[in-house]
Amino acid sequence: MQAFKTLTSITAPLDRANIDTDAIIPKQFLKSIKRSGFGPNLFDEWRYLDHGEVGMDNTKRPLNKDFVLNQPEYQGAKILLTRENFGCGSSREHAPWALEDYGFKAIIAPSFADIFYNNCFKNGLLPIVQDNNVMDELFGFKGEITIDLESQNINANGKKYTFEVDAERKRRLLNGLDDISLTLQYEDEIKSFETTYFKKYSWLN
Amino acid sequence: MAQTLYDKLMAAHVVREEATTALIYIDRQLIHEVTSPQAFEGLEMAGRKPWRLDANLAVPDHNVPTTERSSGVAGIEDPISKLQIETLDKNCEIFGINEITMNDVRQGIVHVVGPEQGATLPGMSIVCGDSHTSTHGALGALAFGIGTSEVEHVLATGCLWQSKSKNLKIEVSGELNEFVSAKDVALYIIGQIGTAGGTGYAIEFAGTTIQDLSVEGRMTLCNMAIEAGARVGMVAVDDKTIEYVKGRPMAPTGDEWDKAVEYWHTLHSDEDAHFDQIVRINAKDIKPQVTWGTSPEMVIGVDGIVPDPDKETDPVKAEGIRNALSYIHLKANTPINTVNIDKVFIGSCTNSRLEDLRVAAAVTKGKHIADNIKLALVVPGSGLIKKQAEAEGLDKIFTDAGFEWREAGCSMCLAMNADKLEPGERCASTSNRNFEGRQGQGSFTHLVSPAIAAASAIAGHFSEVE
Asked: ipTM score of the complex?
């Protein structure tokens, strides 16, 4: 996993609440057995005017010019601004994979759905919660903003906003640490837990 | 100290505690073909082996065809669906994981198969790369959906890092009105607290109404906890739970059974346990529900009218209503029972159990679907449910009425197989999500109970049971 330290980028404003993971990456693209390549189909049903299927040449498809990611001023944005309850619905990790593959590194919203929020951290994507007033200011701000994970703040032309992040998640993201190797450091602890556990709950073994 | 059911279940599984998170032991991982290939690939690339093979049980469900299956996986028409199922079969073989394959009579939707096989037991910690894993909490288990990286993590370590959720009790009291089911209770609750109302919480459903529900009904309710934003939905263990588990193929027997039952009887919240929030609902207030929009919280009684955005004072909500009405092609203030439908789907991990099929069949018996219904599907949750339903003659009731009777799978709930809606088609569906495009691009989904789905198929529009 890639480490996340600081990020400076323009933002893409997706001004809509309750965006579900079906909208982020429609189900037909879940048939892939790979982890990459979902970026061109991010927000597929909003982004293109035709119906997207696996294997299509996405560069030849008609674009919905009204959709924010298709507008010239937001090209190259690595930060997504959105509204309440982003990432609700299906647990598909294809949603953060698609956002990451498209080029997003951070998402700022008033709230996130739990499973999606978790999945972001596994993929080097930083979800940031800000209250509605701050969101309105960020939606209204034009230009680059800087996110500094170490000091937990967002800087928009000198105006700073702080954000919360779990200390352990922060450490893993800052260092790009792989969860599984970290957990396997506790292999002996897990084994000793199992011994006691299966003695007590013997029908589970 | 007095504990909630959730507190007890968490505490029993903590391997290691850190400041804000804990490593918890996972008793059971259920695996399906959509969210597992990348996890197995990661395992293989790192040269790792599954931590405890017996913890895992796999079954293909999302992509399986519900039509004729005599040619097996090789006969699946869609090459990409076929590849995904072949990949699951191959991965389970390579890693030695127990799999119920597509043509096995026990195959079905992972959240139906787990409890049916006794792979889901009270007190277990259960995960699956699917948000509807909350279903299993109906048996007093700690069950929640995870992403693919976490699927790989559980395969490799037998554990998962979790931060503790807050406790939310939803207490439903009193007797349900006629033809009001667990599905209506679930939709009503989501309508009251919203799709983010449970975010950050583990929900325990309690109260006399919940006690009176069958275990199958409790599964329907816990299944929809995630639609209220909660990863975990639970019901305390009682005699019904134990009776349900008894004799299941993977359930304990003999002395182990007695020992297990003794423990399972402790799986309820202590009387004075602290909940961070309590929501109280009177069962009498719940009518049969129909969603009118593109989120499960956009729901009204079947005798209700579609809301008017101009009457909504919250601008974000008003915009949400406008977006939804524009997508779903409905006008504000329309009585929902005047809206015609094109297709009907009875199935999904929410409503495909025997009880659901019995209710729908009872409503359908001796009647026929309306002329404007292009397709009405009944998709049982598992091969065993299908077999039992056929033994009771339910298939005949459905087919005589013009329904199609299919093989088990997720089917039109998310339309990853061939069962989908065409653009502009409107469906009364017993599934769990009415998001834009969920059942097919440009299609309109209305969530209902099995009774209302059957009644609406007969009427040709949303309808109460006549």
From this structure: 0.94
